[in-house]
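Recap from last week: sequence in, structure out.
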Amino acid sequence: MKKFFTYASVAIVILALGIIAGWWGTKRIAEPRVTSQVILSALRDRGFLVTQSFVFNENIKITNNSESFWHDLLWGQAIKAYGIAEVNLGVDLAKLGEDDVKVEKDKVTVSVPAVEIFNSRIVGDISLENKQGILKRVFENDDGYNQAVTEMIKQAEANATTPEMLTNANQKAREEIKRLVEFIAKDKVVEVVIQENQAE
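Predicted structure tokens:
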């Protein structure tokens, strides 16, 4: 009887060990393996990732005059405008290539393009003052709106892409992309490198 209980106990222990080993093996197989291709696909799927938005109050003045008093009186134009312009910067993750993601044992390194302008727009209405020469108003009437919008956006983009602004935007891009990759590769250290194809 004692031998029976001994054999039964051994059998139960072996069976339990077998069940645990099988469960552990199945669990390890079921866990998705983090590869460079997995990370690359996830990042590319994000497309253009906007990481920084700037809003500027823009005042512009455009003078289409010559050195001739009479020409300016007849054909001259002076535009003054005020408005709010928004500029969005980010990283085009669709441009990433296979060499831009490296997965090592404990670390993931992602090399991304420097930030660039995604889009720019005028927010709301603009305040516009347009003075035109006598003949221009009659024969070539131009309300000045398109010129004003173009100049305000140009000025806002210049303000958004100063070295200081680009440095801050690139840092924000690093942080956001690092967060995205850490969500995929939870057990690894993530480093994001900005490619030196544009000056920060």
